[in-house]
Specification:
Strand content: 5-15%
Helix content: 55-70%
Oligomer: single chain
Number of strands: 13
Length: about 850
């Protein structure tokens, strides 16, 4: 070569921080040459910190280096100092520019971090210049195979001359590595992993050497036990120190100890759980008093996840060390620690505010080796089980994968047998499995709370009247019945098919109905009568002649539906699918029906009262205190309205006036009463203790009638229905259409999320998917549609006879789905009240 290539290597320059800056300057100024290759290794974070301190040193011209270090005692102080101080605002920029100039981004190479087990499986331990025996010609061994090989060495040494050889505790009968989670005991740097492998290698060498002594004497001596203890104790400490996650575990108690006069070695599994509980409490104490509750909870959950990962790594380290111990000492290998394992995998699953609670997501007190064989990925994914949403589709999918995807068994019959065996001992776990299967496969994840909630004003106004209060009560009953189904998509499709083919189909008019509804003997109310009278009248007809009433309500539905079809005529062209077009039209029709009822209440109703009752109402309203400026204005306007009415009444027996102002006043007053009852009433504009009790008396005077509207009668078949009768029929229609509304919303949401095809594809094309097949088998004998017998429309659906002799698993699935529906209804109620 005409010009030689010079390679200069500077290793770990961050270990001498006082010379690091000087080295970077020299290499940049004097060694920038095509024939000079410079290799520098360092911890980038430390190196950048050194550069920042040097820049600060130059800027303030200080020789007291210790004072400069104290300038940045904590990260948050550093950030505040760097970004808020005008004088030193350029330090960050200057240090970054210097670093990018001397070590350009294109010249940097970052060493791999092995943060996950999948990445650690890619690591191979080099056999060059190492003392352990590797197959000839093999220069490195994959990490999992290295661990298995070391245990095999122990088995070969200690099973020599025995009639029956024991199995490697890291490998199951299928010769697959079931303890891949053991790789959690290693750190995330290649150096950490190499150090850990070397310590394991040295420990196995010492134990193999000990086997030669015991094979001659045939029994263990106190010195032998002490040698094993010291070997495993040193291994435990070395592995903990080589893993940054375990480096700071408390040293108050040792993980491995000698008992029984030094002849017995124990792994202290309770210490792991106690250590986790201690760290858990420290986290709660640290964040408990912080102001931002939401951010606080997220930080606590993140800390809990880190703590659980540490505990899981420590547990796997304990399993590995005990496995080595039993390989050396015991005729059979059975790992302990099942109680600690059970507590850890089920801890802090559900969060209410900042309070975590446990949930039985995995079987309790199951044999450790069986657990690891059945659920090999659970400890690896343990951080995914902190603060979970049990009703989340994505969580259900991951959870079921961890339970069943990595097992030896692959058929739904095998899964069914597993659950059948566990139900006597772990029924709560089986119920959790059924819950997540229902979330995953029933369509439950398609639900949105806003499908079932009313606006705050609408809900409060409806509560003022007995005939509209039923709207919400019926909605809650129908929600619970609807969501007890095993397959919401299938049920939704059936309901809309029934709606189209039965309820909207042409039917002959009955001659009996006019006699019942419109005969003079039937005491038909007058158009101007209060709505309560009309409501009582139709309620009596429904009770005495339900079939005829259902027929007339269907007739009324078809007359109202014709207008909706004109409004949503473009739905078929937009969706290109008949069932989705129907769902869209039906959803819009029911929403408009609900808004029409509310609009009529607010703008088309009259208060009906006598003069004496009006005077009583005035007295009660005068006693009510005003707590906000808005209520004061409404209160004053309503009092003026009442006094004018009384002056103009003279000798009138019945007084009628628009209800809009009264309802508006009552709505805002109801909001303030709720605040007062919830303890959040703080805006006392006039009195410290407001008197709001008059509200409850004023409600009794809300007797309303529909405004007379000439020419607004609705045509139903051959008959004209007055606005008051139509208003009550709208309410009845809405109450009976709730199941169809839910069905329409479910199908539309499935289409929007792209899950409709997903469910259909799983059902039609992927029948062999074992979990889907298992769910179908468990729910095949359960009722596909739950019917509310009081609903006029769904009561006519073909009834399914209750299945007898349900198995224990089927009964538990049925109970789980009913409980899920009840909890969802309670959640909707609670969220509605909290709005």
């Amino acid at each position: 070569m005409k010009y030689p290539l010079i390679i200069l290597v500077f290793d770990d320059i961050d270990l001498v921080p006082e010379r690091s800056m000087e080295l970077l300057n020299i290499t940049f100024q004097y060694f920038t040459n095509p024939n000079i290759v410079i290799l520098i290794t360092a911890a980038e974070k430390t190196l950048k910190e050194v550069i920042r301190l040097k820049m600060l040193d130059r800027m303030v011209s200080s020789e007291a280096k210790s004072l400069l270090i104290d300038v940045f005692p904590r990260i948050e102080v550093k950030q505040e100092f760097s970004y808020q101080s005008e004088r030193f605002a350029s330090i960050e920029r200057m240090s970054d520019e210097f670093y990018n100039k001397v070590i350009p981004p294109s010249s940097r190479y970052y060493l791999n971090r092995y943060t996950s087990i999948s990445e650690k499986l890619l690591y191979s331990y080099s056999s060059i210049e190492q003392s352990f025996i590797a197959p000839q010609g093999v220069l490195s061994t994959p990490l999992d195979q290295f661990l298995i090989g070391q245990v095999n060495r122990l088995l070969k040494a200690f099973d020599k001359g025995k009639a029956e050889n024991r199995e490697n505790f890291l490998v199951d009968r299928t010769q697959e590595n079931k303890f891949r989670t053991c790789l959690m005991l290693f750190g995330n740097k290649s150096r950490n992993i190499a150090n850990g492998c070397l310590e394991i290698l040295n420990a196995v060498n010492r134990l193999v050497a000990l086997s030669n002594h015991t094979s001659k004497t045939g029994k263990w001596t106190h010195e032998d036990s002490l040698e094993i203890y010291q070997t495993l104790y040193h291994l435990t400490q070395a592995l903990m120190l080589s893993n940054s996650a375990l480096r700071y575990v408390s040293r108050e108690r040792e993980l491995i100890c000698l008992v029984g006069n030094g002849m017995r070695i124990l792994i202290q599994y309770p210490f792991i759980w106690e250590e986790y509980q201690k760290e858990r409490q420290e986290i709660l104490d640290e964040f408990f008093d912080k102001e931002n509750a939401h951010s606080n909870t997220l930080q606590i959950q993140r800390k809990f996840k880190e703590a659980q990962k540490r505990a899981a790594s420590l547990l796997m380290l304990s399993f590995f060390v005990e496995g080595l111990l039993q390989t050396v000492q015991s005729p059979t290998i059975r790992l302990h620690g099942e109680q600690t394992l059970s507590k850890l995998v089920n801890a802090d699953v559900i969060w209410e505010g900042n309070s975590p609670t446990e949930q039985t997501l995995f079987p309790r007190y199951k044999n450790v080796q069986d657990f690891m064989d059945s659920f090999p990925r659970v400890l690896e994914h343990l951080d995914q089980y902190v603060g979970v949403d049990l009703y989340s589709f994505s969580f259900a999918e991951k959870y079921l994968e961890d339970l069943f995807l990595y097992r030896r068994e692959t058929t739904h019959e095998a899964f069914l047998e597993i659950l059948r065996k566990e139900i006597p001992y772990n029924q709560r776990w089986v119920a959790s499995v059924f819950l997540e299967m229902s979330v995953r496969y029933s369509g439950f994840s398609l639900l949105k709370e806003d499908m079932f909630q009313l606006s705050d004003e609408m809900r409060r106004v409806f509560q003022l009247f007995s005939f509209t209060e039923n709207i919400m009560e019926e909605k809650e009953r129908e929600i619970e019945a609807f969501f007890s189904s095993s397959n919401l998509l299938q049920q939704s499709t059936k309901l809309l098919d029934y709606f189209e083919k039965q309820l909207l189909a042409h039917s002959q008019e009955s001659s009996s109905l006019p006699h019942i509804l419109f005969s003079e003997k039937s005491n038909v109310p007058q158009a101007g009568d209060p709505i309560t009278i009309w409501n009582d009248y139709f309620s009596a007809i429904k009770k005495e002649e339900k079939n005829y009433f259902t027929w007339f309500l269907s007739l009324y539905l078809r007359s109202r539906w014709n207008d909706a079809q004109e409004t949503y005529s473009g739905a078929r062209d937009y969706f290109g699918d008949k069932i989705l077009s129907l769902a869209y039209t039906l959803s819009g029709f029911i929403d408009s029906l609900l808004n029409s009822i509310f609009h009529s209440l607010k703008n088309k109703m009259l208060i009906v009262s006598t003069k004496s009752r009006l005077q009583e109402l005035l007295q009660y309203v005068e006693q009510i205190d005003s707590t906000t400026e808005q209520i004061r204005i409404l209160h004053g306007r309503f009092l003026i309205q009442l006094r004018r009415l009384l002056r103009a009444a003279k000798d009138k027996e019945v007084i009628q006036f628009p209800a809009a102002l009264f309802l508006d006043y009552m709505f805002h007053l109801n909001v303030e009463i709720d605040k007062y009852q919830m303890g959040s009433f703080t805006d006392y504009a006039y009195l410290d203790m407001p008197d709001l009790l008059g509200y409850y008396k004023a409600v009794e005077y809300l007797v309303i009638a529909h405004m007379p509207e000439s020419g607004q009668e609705k045509e139903v078949g051959k008959w004209l229905i007055c606005p008051a009768a139509a208003f009550v029929l709208d309410i009845n229609l809405l109450e009976n259409l709730w199941p169809f509304y839910f069905a329409a919303q479910i199908l539309l949401e499935a289409e929007e999320q792209g899950k409709n095809d997903l469910y259909r594809r799983e059902k039609a094309e992927n029948q062999q998917a074992p979990l889907r097949k298992l769910y179908d088998q468990l729910t095949s004998r359960l009722a596909s549609i739950h019917i509310n017998p009081d609903n006029c429309f769904t009561a006519a659906l073909p009834r399914e006879k209750p299945k007898k002799n349900l198995t224990g698993l089927e009964r538990l699935m049925q109970i789980t789905q009913q409980t899920m529906a009840e909890q969802f209804v309670e959640m909707v109620k609670e969220n509605q009240q909290n709005e």
